[in-house]
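Section 5.1 Outputs to date
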Amino acid sequence: MNDQTPVFRTSQLEENDGPGHNPTDNPTMGELIAARFSRRGFLKGSLAVSAIAATVSPMALMLADDARAETKSAFSFEEVEAGIDEKHHVAAGYDADVLLRWGDGIFGDSPEFDPRNQTPESQAKQFGYNNDYVGYIPIDGSSEHGLLVVNHEYTNEHLMFPGIVKVAEGKIEVAPADKKRVDIEMAAHGGTIVEIKKTGGKWQVVKDGKLNRRITANTEMQLSGPVAGHDRVKTNADSSGRKVFGTINNCAGGVTPWGTYVMAEENIHGYFTGELAADSKEAANYKRLGLPEGSYEWGKFHDRFDVSKDPNEANRFGWIVEVDVNDPVSVPKKRTSMGRFKHEGAESIVSKDGRVVFYLGDDERFDYVYKFVTTGKFNPDDRAANLDLLDEGTLYVAKFEADGTVNWLPIVHGTGPLTAENGFASQADVLIETRRAGDLLGATKMDRPEDIQPNGVNGKVYVMLTNNTKRKDDQIDAVNPRAKNAFGHIVEIAEADGDFAATKGKWEILLKCGDPSIADVGASFSTETTKNGWFGMPDNCSVDADGRLWVSTDGNSPKDTGRTDGLWAVDTEGAARATSKLFFRVPIGAEMCGPLMLPDMATMMVAVQHPADGGEDWEGFGRPSYYEDLSTRWPDFKDDMPVRPSVVAITKKGGGKIGV
C-alpha cells in the first residue's frame, strides 16, 4: 500500500480474506457435491430439502409435504420481516438491548468515549472495535452473572476517525496515517473480558469487576507447544522465540470446557508490509497466506510489521490464543499445536473417552476444515490439570469423499509426504506451514470454512461455508449449479459411532443458501421457509442447550439480496429440517456476529459489527458514500443510528426461553 492509494477495510466478505489461491489439484467441495449427488436428483432451483432420493415421484413429494406439515418446528416466534434500514429489529415479544458499544468503559477509571479525541491510552481502557466472537463464562455456575469475552477483529479507520476521509470534486482524499492513529487502532484490536450481571431482567456491565481486562495488539503473550523456541519464530526483539506481543484479527473463537477463552487469529496478512529478501526461506510460506498484503500501515511505525526488517514476525501470528480469565494478569498463550492458518473459530466438545475436540475453519476460498484432538483428557474436577491440554494433541485436516464419507488426515511430521524431503524438518515446520501440509495430504478445498459447531445433543457437526465466487464453471455440473457460489452452504458431519474424536465420519448437505425463488440459485430451503426466512453467506453459528442451530450471516446487502444480515433459526431434525426463520436483523452495512445463547436459554447475545460500512448502496442511508466526512454527522449517527459496533442482549418480554 502506498501513500496515494487509500485502502478501506470493509466487510471481510471479499475484500480482506486473502488471495484465495490454493495451488493444488485437490478436489473442491463443489466437485464432490456434484459427484455424490449427480445420481440423486436434486431439484434445480426448487424449495427442496438437501437430499432427495434417486427417483423422485410426484406422489413422494406430496407425501413429504404432508409429513412436513404435520411436524412442528423447534422454534416458535413471530418472524422478523427481512429488509433494509438503519435500526436493529428483533422478533415480536423480545427486547434487544445494547449492552456494550465501541468506546464504552470497562473499568472504574475508564475515560468517557470521545470519537474526535481518542488516544491509545483511553482506547486500552475501553471496549474495542468490531466485536466478533462472544462467549460467556459463568461465575459460580450462574446464567445471570458471569464473564463476557468478546473478540475485536479489525478496525475501519474511515468510520472510527471522523474527518480523515473527504470527497472533493469526486475524488477521495484520505488523511495519511500517523503513529497516534495506528496506536489507537492497535489498542482497539484484541479482546475484552468483562464481568456482567442481570439485574431486574436487564444486563449490566460491572465496571469494577476484578477480572475485567483488555487484550490488545501489544499485550505480552507466550508461544507454547512444538513451535516455541524454533528459529523461524525468533525475531530482532525476541531471540528466544517464545515471547510475542499482541494478537490481531481475532474473528470467532470459543470457550473451553475448563473455562478459558480462546481467540482465533484470522486474516493476519493485511497487517504486514515490506518485501522479503529474494532468497528468503519464508517466501513460499508467506505467499500461501497472502502476506504481506499491507492494507494496514502499522509497519511504517512499528518495524515488527515490516517483513523486510523483521522477516519472522509474521510466523508468530495465525494461531489460537488461550487466555486464563481467572487471572487478569496471566500471560495469554498461543497454542501452536493447533496449527497456523486463517483461523475462524475454535469451538470444542468432550469426546467419549474424555479427550477434547476442537473444530477449526480456515476462512479462505479453497481452503480447509480442521479439527484438533487433545492427547490428554479433560478433568472436570481439577481445572488446573486442564490448563495446558492444548499443548499436546493431533491436528487433522478433512478429506471429503464423493461417497458421503469424510476422512480426518493427521497432520503429523513423518506421516505420508510430511517429511524433510518436502521441507518439513520437524513438527514445528509442519505447524508453521499448516496450509502446505494440508495441500500435500490432499485435503478437500472448501468454500470459505468459517464457524464449525459441534452439537452435543444430536451428535452432529455443522460447518458454515460462506461463499466462493471464484469457483469456475468447470467445477460444477447440472445437479449442483453453484458456479461463482455467492451464497454459500452448510455441511453437516456425523462422526463415526457418534465419537467426535473419530478419524472417519459421514457428511451431508444441510442447506444450499440463497434466494429459493430464483431457480438458477439452486437453494434448498424447505417449503415451509418464508420469503423472510432464506439467507445467504452463513458465517457464525451456535447450538443452544436444546441442540437447536442458530446461524448468523455476513454479506447480505441492498445490492445483492435486498436485505441486511441477521440471525436465523434453522431446523436440523425431522420433516422440518432445512426450515429457517429470521429472528434478528442488523442495521445497514453491519455484519451479524456471535451468536451466543446463555446456558439457561433466557438470553441470546449477538455482536453487531461495522454498522454503516458500505451503506452507499441504500438511498435511505442519507449520504452518497461512506467516504463522506462523518464529523459533520456524528451526533446524528451516534444517537439515531447504531454506527458503533455493539454487543446486544436479547431477552424475552416477561422472561422465558428464547425461541420457545
